[in-house]
Amino acid sequence: MDPIRAAMLKRSRSAKRERRGKLISLVCISLIVLVVAAIFFFVASRGLATFFDNKVNLWAFLSQSVWSPAVNDAHGNPQVGALPMIVGSFGVTFLSAIVATPFAVGAAIFMTEISPRLGAKILQPVIELLVGIPSVVYGFIGLSVVVPAIRHAFGGTGFGILAGTFVLFVMILPTVTSMTVDALHAVPRYYREASLALGATRWQTISRVVLRAALPGILTGVVFGMARAFGEALAVQMVIGNAALLPHNLISPASTLTSVLTAGIGNTVMGSLENNALWSLALLLLLMSLAFNLVIRWIGKKGEMKR
Amino acid sequence: MNAKQKDKLATVVLYLIAGIIVLILASLLGYILVQGLPHVSWHFLTSPARAFAAGGGIGIQLFNSFYLLLLAMLISVPISLGAGIYLAEYAKANRLTDVIRTAIEILSSLPSVVVGLFGFLVFVLQFHFGFSILSGALALTMFNLPLLTRNIEDSLRQVDFAQREAGLALGLSRWETVIHVVIPEALPGIITGMILGAGRVFGEAAALIYTAGQSAPALNFADWNPLNIASPLNVFRPAETLAVHIWKINSEGIQPDAAAVSAGASAVLILAVLLFNVLARFLGRRLYKKMTAE
Amino acid sequence: MQNYSLTDTFIRPFDQGQEIALATSALKVFYDDHEALHGVSLPFERYKITALIGASGSGKSTFLRSLNRMNDTIEGTRVTGSIMYRGVDINSKQVDVYEMRKHIGMVFQRPNPFAKSIYDNITFAPRRFGEHNKEKLDQLVEQSLKDAALWDQVKDDLHQSGLALSGGQQQRLCIARAIAMKPDILLLDEPASALDPISTSTVEDTLLQLKDHYTIIIVTHNMQQAARISDYTAFFYSGTAIEYDETRKIFTRPKIKATEDYVSGHFG
């Protein structure tokens, strides 16, 4: 028989390698998906125990402001009001985003529209370095510089939402900036040329044409930054004061979901209410991160529709 | 104010913003280095930490950080390579792929403290690994996987499809072509991404507090048998890393020289991360030049 | 441009004595729901050069790429009809696609050498298939490069990167790489379209040399090229093979109006 024909009708080594390789890659990707599923399953099963096993009212958990799971109130109910942490987390997140956004957008405009040369030479590496600095270092600087400065200026301990905002502002600044830069780069050149040709000044072009066209991308960057701020644990925990109380003002000690978690999970007994309540906070954190993801997708879809 | 003046003002404000950001970084680095570097000495880098007295070093923490990084990379690189190949080469445009991508996106946006808590629950408690290097490395792997996978997928996609066609037309399978042609060409991007990932892992603390633990038992650097508990190579010993150490002494430290130790440790941490950054750029560029024969 | 009938076709019959290397029958290719080829039946004679000509979008490249199943890599591609090669349909389940491609090689429009040395470009696949004898590999490199008319220019720096060569040299390296596999049939998809005239003529000379040992099917945009090098020419129009005949006849006395208009430059 024709040897070439015979060879073609056999399964080649390449075919076997292909099958094996495909299988390996499938196993790897499945592993990652499995990890994600496992994270959700474990955190949810622990976090929901507070409500199903310990019969804590979900509404009370979200709306009450006394957090001392170990002590029952006058009616014998456990006091797991997570409101202080929820307020703290949202507080630092929104405030830091509000402060960081103008800086980030300004820096991004500088890098893409005003001086791309200086932008690429100086600001780009600066942004990359800021991303690279570990969060504990930010926390340490917050603790040794920002907190004393606030104490000096406003009195009190210096710990609190203001300090947290300061630290997070610097931490999310590079994230928002680099995503805004990408969004600005994606605006077609002829938008600018058309506007300038109509006699608009550079600033008019930027503010009325470029920024408007890049808005979905910029918003995505801001939400990304907020997600990062919301989930940041150690840097915030080091400067926020860690008092599970509703904050009176920006410079009174407060707490966030992450700060209570990091401080508490090691000091509670697995399966106890104190421990379950902490896992409920973790679940809340997980769900919020999911929510941020959804918002980012939603903005992306809206942005696509506009084009 | 007319349009021209507004334009001038806006330009000035933008320069100001750019200047402020540069200033922030400069003062951050300046503060850490000025405060920290004087404290960094050979003794500081090599001697063990002290809990109650001044004069402690960061030797064990430094070793732990590198060892943990190495293990985490050893686990996460092959997995993300496989996963990246799947996404770049085999994934079809369908619902399943959407689900996979969404899962990876979610994993990459999870707060690292949640990843750490999951590691605590599963590796430390369920698998009885305890607070150990192994638990920590696995937690870091989860933290590292989505980014590495995405980086590898992107790097593979950057390689011209014509290269795959060339391999296929010679009778090689897609897998062989990817392993022997596409990956070598994508290597500059992959290596750069890996080193940047390593920098991130090196500075990570939140995922480690409840997995690798917050204590650094004394090590016997003469004992390289990984089964002995005092051996540096033992993967079942608790291992506080440099980043965790900084957090620990600042949040509950009682050393009289806590501030100096943290400044020194922060300086070392930052220098290490800087080094990773420089290395990533340098190696990436070198490899790219070599590959493209410029 | 007028519309031509797709049923008004002429496909040259082959004699019993002529050896057919490859033959398609009623070959249709679909991209998702779009039918890109409407049932093409063409035989290819062994040790001849057959040119496929036609305007862009006429289906000639799609047809060529289906001959060694390169279209498999495009998601949503479906093929019906048959491609008979050595008594088997290469699209049937029993055929190992990778083994088949070793015997039906392909050179692409854009030169695509690997980012490896010239030497490794050629020996890469043979080594993957188990040839590790240094002497044999050296010999293979020399022979393939000589066949591709590249040896004299690169023999002194076989270890420099294939990407450092000029466009024409790169394409000849790709041809050398393909013939190092000692294929039965060589498919070329507009191999000279990205090259300057001098490189083009070198590549054409190379192909004429190779004809003695290989069956060559070449897609080309360039009618002069088809006329210069091919023995047979098939004219494609709108996903259909309109006319297939000896090249001489196609260019001097075409039987179909569409072919005549195309070769005389009325559309294209």
Task: Describe, in plain words, how this protein is organized in 3D.
The complex is a heterotrimer of chains A (307), B (294) and C (268). Chain A is 76% helix and 3% strand. With 307 residues, chain A is mostly helical. In chain A, strands 1-2 form a two-stranded antiparallel ribbon. In chain A, a hairpin with a 5-residue loop joins strand 1 and strand 2. In chain A, helix 8 packs antiparallel against helix 9. Chain A is flat. Chain B is mainly alpha-helical and 294 residues long. The termini of chain B are far apart. Chain C has a domain of 183 residues: 3-Layer(aba) Sandwich (Rossmann fold), CATH 3.40.50. In chain C, helix 3 packs across helix 4, helix 4 crosses helix 6 and helix 6 packs parallel to helix 7. In chain C, 49% of the residues are buried. The mean pLDDT of chain C is 92. Classes of the chains: A mainly alpha (307), B mainly alpha (294), C alpha/beta (268). Chains A and B meet through helix 2, helix 4, helix 5, helix 6 and helix 7 of A and helix 1, helix 3, helix 4, helix 5 and helix 6 of B. Chain B: It is found in: Cell membrane. Chain B: Belongs to the binding-protein-dependent transport system permease family. CysTW subfamily. Chain B: It is a multi-pass membrane protein. Chain B: This is Phosphate transport system permease protein PstA.
Structural features:
heterotrimer, A: 307 residues, mainly alpha, MetI-like fold, two-stranded antiparallel sheet, 76% helix, flat, B: 294 residues, 10 helices, globular, transmembrane helix (chain B), cell membrane (chain B), Phosphate_PstA (chain B), MetI-like (chain B)
Could you provide a short overview of the structure?
The complex is a heterotrimer of chains A (307), B (294) and C (268). Chain B has 294 residues and is mostly helical.
Number of domain units of chain B: 1
**Uncertain segments of chain A:** none
Order of helical and strand elements of chain A: HHHEEHHHHHHHHH
Sheet of most strands of chain B? none
Shape of chain A: flat
The CATH class name of the largest domain in chain A reads Mainly Alpha
- How many strand units of chain B? 0
What number of domains of chain A? 2
Please estimate the helix content of chain A.
over 70%
For the termini of chain A, the CA-CA separation is 62 Å
Which two chains share the most extensive interface?
A: A-B, 88 and 90 residues
Rg of chain A is: 26 Å
The biggest sheet of chain A amounts to: 2 strands, antiparallel
Helix/strand class of chain B:
mainly alpha
